[in-house]
């Protein structure tokens, strides 16, 4: 008896492993030989591509329609969960559905129904998904554990329960639990009309809910406490949002699989974040990205029969994410880099103009020629290359002229330089009179803030220091070079 | 007990040993993941190793353990690295960047595997389930002892993790709680972060070949979370989490054999049940934690509510007496006037009678001298507060009573004296009612301040 149980267990596990990906099985599998050499994808004929792109096959049409809608719904719902900092909620929920699926199967079989009927399994998945969600909310509400720990604990414990139940399901169905696994890991390519209908209903339902409660959900995402204080039912909204996640996840799970579903909930929303700061724009962009990825992924895998559609959809999402990360118009790497370069150039210009102005003001320039380049170099600790670049740019902009190693200000340059010097000194005076900072230290402080002073602030300073008009106040401290003391009293 | 009839040390013993080692190794690191809010990393890494496995399979064209191991660990570390990079460079929320990275890597791995082995039935679940039951079959010979390979590997991993936690104790502690401080103290908290990530990846990869991924994912988060509920200090937290992890591994294996038999089934997957029993332990510690458990908080709340109701009862009776109002002293009236539920009122009145602060006379409750003393100090607190709120805070007359009603329960004798001093020892409160004098009685004082 002992042996039988153990051996049965081991046998079960072995068949399990063999049925898996199986890197383990590759020893016996004859295709080992072509693992590297025979990697080429069989290129489709033009006719095949045309049929897919024009959606001429009924099956392709159904699959593409289903994944597109799913991508759209997941994109909208995902943008809310992302802003709510619960991006991985879908991950936890999709794992939490497993025990429900198994129990539904066991109960239905016990009562003499078909355990694999879709509605039974969906019901089980929904119930246990909701249970998982409530557990997460309960842990979050009653304990000091953080969100991530609650998600991780619910995910692993529910999934562990599911795995344990699967062991029992196998005993009941005599190893024919393959249907359940397809349910968990998706069967995009074999999506049928009934699946597509379920997805359509769920997608329109959740998109509709998000639109109806758009304002409330937005407030929930940005400022939960404020929403509560304005009398919004925060708990209800939270559960509503999580319910839409559950619904979208579950229809998606059985259609496209576990990991793909997480990807559809997270990636389009994260990508959309790079394009907009506006909640509604972000939701639309995210929905659009989800739709396009769903469509393209399904079509790709229809054209190249050897590429699994779930994975293709994820990779296309990832490609969109990478593009958004780099080119995103609000927070993309390029635009942020560009902004930084622009800011640096502006700071360089302001430093240059003020330096030349102060040199001329304190009489260190040569009459008629301006300030020598070497003098300027001494003024600040700037590199020669950077200073030359800055001078060249301002020369082109017509603010300074640079001849024979001497820099001097042109008329527009003088106006701009005196404005800059004025606001620098106003801030210095303010620090001396109102913040009681020693005159010898104000230069550095003002140097840091002068680039971000806006006209309103200047107006306020003028009022405070009683210095209207355009005159440039005298420097409250000695004008020194960064290295050498100029020794010229102002 | 049927369990011990069927028990075989050669099989079950090794299974439990592998489970305990995996649980302990994961729980050691899990504490820092939970504290750093990266609990989902275990799950992410366990999905993301797929391309690493596939790539090393392509390169070596064999399923030799070492290259696969290295490939998987590299993929795991890459996950951590990319997550950190996208979070930093793209300013994306940590969870979202993790989601982007691991789903992408997993999809990549799927495609690589499909292209490698066209006709092999593909089930991404394989890495998730593992087969701890297979542990005793794969034995290695160490100095004449036949020991399962998984047990050897996991022992090595456990020792490495122990050494890591021991040697970098101070660094781990500081960088987990305050990475800014870590930088000022003079070591790189980034380095510690990546060391931790590498070890999490190593632990995960070493575990799921032998005992299954779900066990690692659970053991990285659940025991540490349970320990977090039970203690506030790091060292006890690590000890508790390790002990809880070991307990859940043992009970997990036992329940995998026992629980299904209640419903007439054969035994089920051990790794899954280990995760479930860890979840059970977490649930118990959330409910019964002596520090911040749901139960203890409920009891504390109840006791406080009863104490406040007690004080309300005596003060109410005192006011009726003082103004000679024609209101009954019976149970129903008290319950209606003080808006209390039946059980609480019953408990509170019985307690007051047993402390001889009230007497019952034909269903009417009357204050004894002792009760009156307690009521006086309460009413005194109440009226002093009203006086203070009017004279020093300038609160509207219609909101006075509410405020004083809340404050009176938390006012002890010292505070009353200070109030008395601040308000220049008034005779009457703002409504013109006399403020009772302070009467010394150690017992009443204790009753009203506790």
From TrEMBL, chain A:
One GO molecular function term of this record is: DNA-binding transcription factor activity
The membrane topology term of the UniProt record is:
Multi-pass membrane protein
Q: Which organism is it from?
A: Thalassoglobus neptunius
Q: Quote the protein name from its UniProt record.
A: Manganese transport system membrane protein MntB
**Biological process GO terms, please?**
response to zinc ion; transmembrane transport
Keyword Membrane attached? yes
Per the record, the gene is: mntB_2
- Identify its protein family: Belongs to the ABC-3 integral membrane protein family.
Gene Ontology CC annotations of this record: ATP-binding cassette (ABC) transporter complex
Alphabetical list of SMART domains matching this protein: HTH_DTXR
Give residue ranges for domain Iron dependent repressor metal binding and dimerisation.
413-470
UniProtKB/TrEMBL annotation, chain B:
Q: What is its main location?
A: membrane
Q: How does it sit in the membrane?
A: Multi-pass membrane protein
Q: Which UniProt keywords apply?
A: Cell membrane, Membrane, Transmembrane, Transmembrane helix, Transport
Instruction: Enumerate the CDD domains for this protein.
Output: TM_ABC_iron-siderophores_like
A GO CC annotation given for this chain? ATP-binding cassette (ABC) transporter complex
According to its UniProt record, where is this protein located? Cell membrane
The Iron dependent repressor metal binding and dimerisation domain is annotated at: 368-436
User: Is Chaperone among the key words of this record?
Assistant: no
Query: Might you name a Gene Ontology BP term for this protein?
Result: transmembrane transport
Q: What is this protein called?
A: Manganese transport system membrane protein MntB
């Amino acid at each position: 008896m002992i042996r039988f149980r153990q051996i049965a267990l081991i046998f079960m596990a072995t068949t399990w492993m063999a049925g898996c990906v199986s890197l383990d099985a590759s020893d016996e599998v004859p295709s080992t030989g072509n693992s590297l050499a025979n990697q080429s994808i069989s290129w489709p004929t033009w006719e095949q591509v045309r049929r897919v792109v024009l959606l001429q096959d009924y099956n392709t049409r159904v699959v593409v329609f289903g994944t597109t809608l799913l991508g759209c719904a997941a994109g909208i719902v995902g943008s809310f969960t992302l802003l709510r900092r619960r991006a991985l909620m879908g991950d936890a929920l999709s794992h939490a559905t497993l025990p429900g699926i198994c129990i539904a199967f066991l109960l239905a079989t016990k009562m003499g129904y078909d355990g694999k009927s879709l509605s039974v399994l969906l019901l089980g998945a929904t119930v246990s998904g909701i249970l998982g969600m409530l557990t997460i909310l309960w842990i979050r509400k009653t304990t000091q554990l953080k969100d991530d720990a609650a998600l991780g604990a619910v995910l692993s414990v529910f999934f562990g329960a599911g795995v344990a139940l699967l062991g029992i399901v196998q005993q009941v169905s005599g190893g024919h639990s393959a249907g359940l696994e397809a349910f968990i890991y998706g069967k995009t390519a074999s999506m049928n009309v009934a699946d597509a209908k379920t997805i359509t209903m769920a997608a329109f339902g959740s998109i509709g809910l998000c639109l109806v409660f758009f304002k409330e959900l937005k407030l929930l995402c940005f400022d939960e406490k404020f929403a509560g204080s304005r009398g919004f039912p925060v708990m209800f909204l939270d559960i509503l949002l999580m319910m839409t996640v559950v619904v979208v996840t579950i229809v998606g799970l059985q259609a496209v699989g576990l990991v793909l579903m997480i990807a559809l909930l997270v990636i389009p929303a994260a990508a959309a974040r790079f394009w907009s700061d506006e909640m509604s724009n972000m939701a639309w962009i995210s929905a659009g990205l989800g739709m396009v990825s769903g469509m393209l992924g399904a079509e790709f895998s229809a054209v190249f029969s050897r590429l699994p559609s779930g994975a293709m959809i994820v990779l296309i999402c990832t490609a969109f994410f990478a593009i958004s990360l780099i080119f995103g118009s609000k927070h993309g790497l390029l635009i942020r880099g560009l902004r930084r370069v622009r800011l640096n150039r502006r700071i360089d210009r302001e430093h240059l103009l003020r330096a030349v102005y102060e040199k001329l003001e304190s009489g260190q320039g040569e009459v008629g020629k301006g300030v020598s380049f070497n003098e300027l170099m001494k003024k600040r600790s700037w590199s020669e290359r950077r200073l030359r670049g800055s001078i060249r740019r301002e020369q082109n902009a017509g603010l300074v002229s640079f001849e024979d190693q001497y820099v001097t200000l042109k008329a527009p340059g003088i106006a701009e330089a005196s404005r800059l010097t004025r606001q620098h000194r106003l801030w210095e005076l303010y620090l001396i009179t109102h913040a009681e900072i020693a005159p010898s230290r104000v230069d550095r402080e003002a140097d840091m803030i002068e680039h971000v002073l806006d006209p309103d602030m200047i107006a306020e300073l003028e009022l405070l220091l009683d210095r209207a008009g355009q005159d440039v106040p005298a420097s409250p401290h000695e004008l020194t070079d960064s290295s050498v003391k100029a020794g010229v009293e102002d | 007990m049927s369990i011990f009839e069927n028990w075989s040390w050669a099989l079950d013993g090794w299974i439990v040993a592998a489970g305990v080692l995996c649980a302990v190794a994961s729980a050691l690191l899990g504490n820092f993941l939970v504290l750093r809010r990266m609990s989902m990393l275990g799950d992410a890494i366990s999905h993301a190793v797929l391309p690493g496995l596939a790539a090393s399979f392509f390169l070596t064209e064999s399923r030799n353990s070492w290259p696969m191991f290295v490939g998987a660990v590299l993929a795991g570390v890459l996950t951590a690295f990319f997550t950190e990079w996208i979070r930093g460079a793209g300013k994306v929320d940590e969870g979202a960047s993790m989601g982007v990275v691991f789903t992408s890597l997993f999809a990549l791995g799927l495609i690589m595997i499909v292209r490698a082995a066209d006709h092999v039935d593909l089930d991404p679940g394989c890495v998730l389930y593992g087969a701890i039951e297979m542990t005793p079959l794969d034995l290695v010979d160490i100095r004449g002892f036949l020991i399962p390979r998984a047990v050897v590997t996991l022992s090595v991993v456990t020792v490495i993790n122990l050494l890591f936690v021991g040697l970098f104790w101070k660094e781990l502690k500081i960088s987990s709680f305050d990475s800014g401080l870590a930088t000022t103290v003079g070591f790189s908290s980034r380095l510690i972060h990546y060391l931790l990530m590498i070890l999490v990846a190593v632990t995960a990869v070493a575990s799921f070949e032998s005992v299954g991924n779900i066990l690692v994912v659970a053991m990285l988060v659940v025991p540490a979370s349970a320990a977090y509920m039970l203690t506030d200090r790091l060292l006890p937290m690590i000890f508790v989490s390790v002990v809880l992890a070991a307990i859940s591994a043992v009970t997990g294996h036992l329940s995998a054999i026992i629980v299904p038999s209640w419903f007439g089934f054969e035994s089920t997957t051990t790794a899954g049940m280990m995760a479930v029993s860890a979840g059970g332990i977490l649930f118990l510690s959330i409910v019964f934690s002596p520090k911040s458990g749901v139960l203890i908080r409920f009891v504390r709340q109840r006791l406080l509510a009863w104490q406040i109701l007690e004080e309300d009862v005596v003060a109410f009776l005192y006011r009726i007496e003082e103004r000679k109002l024609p209101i009954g002293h019976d149970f129903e009236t008290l319950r209606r006037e003080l808006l209390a539920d039946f059980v609480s009122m019953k408990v509170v009145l019985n307690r007051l009678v047993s402390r001889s602060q009230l007497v019952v006379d034909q269903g009417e409750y009357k204050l004894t001298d002792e009760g009156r003393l307690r009521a006086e100090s309460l009413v005194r607190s109440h009226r002093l507060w009203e006086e203070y709120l009017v004279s020093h805070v300038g609160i509207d007359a219609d909101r006075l009573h509410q405020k004083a009603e809340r404050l009176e329960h938390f006012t002890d004798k010292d505070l009353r004296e200070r109030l008395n001093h601040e308000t220049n020892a008034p005779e009457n409160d703002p409504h013109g009612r006399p403020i009772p004098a302070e009467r010394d009685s150690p017992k009443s004082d204790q009753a009203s301040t506790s």
